[in-house]
């Protein structure tokens, strides 16, 4: 899973990136954003992996991963920067599964004096308008080209489908209402998938609050969560937490009423937003977590492991993590008839442990 941290300048993106990854990238009030994004891959914490490792004692343990990309901020209302992302940044941000909008909700004398008092809702609007504008330019440029081809007589059904899709998207972006997503037919959706429009990506808002107001922003949160999914972070505080020993960090988190680390809270929110679930493969060689979409079938799960497994899929041997933990061993599950053989269309559930039988 890959997420992109984006937002207006000095909203605390790099601070949050550090909190998520435990890295120590320099942050500061004054400097302009740098052009190169910060990238890191971190493990997705899952206590079930630890328990499975205890049971199977594998040579290797592989967690699911969360890839974080921290981009330079864009200016309020566009400003002097023409494009919000450089071409290379745009290439990267398009690979994100979800965008996380980091929004300033902390006071800093210097930043307030330059950018004004924090105003979360207005900042979210600004970010979204910038994204819509970037997408609109892309949609209209492509639409013009497609129209031109059609006028010149290249009138293939594929091109017409694409034109209809682009016209719907351009008119949606022109209206500027992100809550009225364009209704595309499956064919239309397919025809424009390659453009990876930013505004069509799932989005999460991270409200980056002051340490002393964190947990007491109910009124503001209520207004933000009415329209957007998201979480509140105390960015600076959580960055400092990520540098402490776990027990020490826990004590501070309890004081603040923070139930889980920034990384765990973000992962959970992103899994929920994207409809992701985890399944496991186990054995003496490796215990491993895999991420798929809720509703994915056994053959999709096989494909997540390797395309050969999907191609040659015969059956999936399947039992649940919870059953394994309550009965203690695979043998006990077998005796109780709790190991099932499932076919291609079986909808995999969160916590399923699978072993794929396949033909090469
Ligand atoms: N009080 C407070 N200050 C914060 C918080 N998060 C970030 N800051 C401060 O805000 C300033 C900018 O933080 P960065 O993390 O560099 O912000 P950014 O969004 O990455 O900035 P650009 O990449 O330049 O757009 C720094 O001085 C941070 O110390 C926070 O949660 N609370
Ligand atoms: Mg930054």
Q: What report would you give on this structure?
A:
- The chain is of the alpha/beta class.
- The protein folds into 3 domains: 2-47 and 56-118 and 201-272, P-loop containing nucleotide triphosphate hydrolases (Rossmann fold); 129-199, Obg-related GTPase Ych/YyaF, coiled-coil domain (DNA polymerase, domain 1, Orthogonal Bundle); 295-358, Beta-grasp domain (Ubiquitin-like (UB roll), Roll), CATH 3.10.20.30.
- 43% of the residues lie in helices and 20% in strands.
- The chain has 15 helices and 12 strands.
- The strands form 3 sheets. Strands 2-4-1-5-6-7 form a 6-stranded mixed β-sheet, sandwiched between helices. Strands 3-9-8 form a 3-stranded mixed β-sheet, with helices on both faces.
- The two termini are 29 Å apart.
- 34% of the residues are buried.
- The model has no long low-confidence stretch (mean pLDDT 92).
- Bound molecules: guanosine-5'-triphosphate and magnesium ion.
- Residues 13-14, 33, 70 line the site of magnesium ion.
């Amino acid at each position: 899973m890959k997420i992109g941290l984006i937002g207006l300048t000095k909203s605390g993106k790099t601070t949050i990136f550090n909190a998520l990854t435990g890295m120590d990238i320099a942050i500061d009030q004054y400097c302009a954003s740098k052009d190169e994004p910060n990238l890191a891959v971190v493990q997705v914490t899952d206590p079930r992996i630890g328990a499975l490792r205890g049971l199977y004692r594998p040579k290797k343990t592989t967690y699911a991963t969360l890839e974080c990309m921290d981009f330079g901020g864009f200016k309020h209302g566009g400003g002097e920067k023409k494009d919000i992302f450089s071409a290379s940044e745009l290439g990267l941000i398009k690979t994100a599964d979800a965008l996380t909008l980091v929004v300033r909700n902390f006071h800093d004398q210097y930043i307030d004096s330059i950018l004004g008092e924090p105003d979360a809702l207005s900042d979210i609007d600004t970010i979204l308008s910038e994204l819509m504008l970037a997408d609109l330019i892309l949609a209209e440029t492509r639409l013009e080209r497609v129209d031109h081809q059609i006028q010149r007589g290249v009138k293939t059904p594929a091109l017409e489908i694409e034109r209809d899709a682009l016209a719907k998207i351009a008119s949606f972006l022109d209206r500027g209402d992100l809550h009225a997503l364009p209704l595309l037919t499956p064919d239309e959706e397919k025809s424009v998938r390659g453009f990876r429009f930013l505004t069509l990506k799932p989005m999460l808002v991270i409200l980056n609050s002051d340490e002393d107001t964190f947990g007491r922003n109910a009124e503001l949160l209520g207004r933000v969560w009415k329209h957007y999914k998201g979480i509140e972070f105390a960015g600076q505080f959580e960055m400092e937490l990520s540098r402490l020993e776990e027990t020490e960090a826990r004590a501070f988190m309890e004081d603040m009423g923070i139930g889980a680390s920034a990384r765990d809270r973000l992962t959970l929110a992103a899994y929920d937003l994207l409809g992701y679930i985890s399944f496991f493969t186990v054995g003496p060689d490796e215990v491993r977590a895999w991420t798929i979409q809720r509703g994915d079938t056994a053959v999709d799960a096989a494909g997540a492991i390797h395309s050969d497994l999907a191609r040659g899929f015969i059956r999936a041997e399947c039992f649940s993590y919870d059953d394994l933990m309550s009965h203690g061993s695979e043998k006990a599950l077998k005796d109780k008839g709790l190991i099932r053989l499932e076919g291609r269309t079986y909808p995999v559930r969160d916590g399923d442990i699978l072993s794929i039988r396949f033909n090469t």
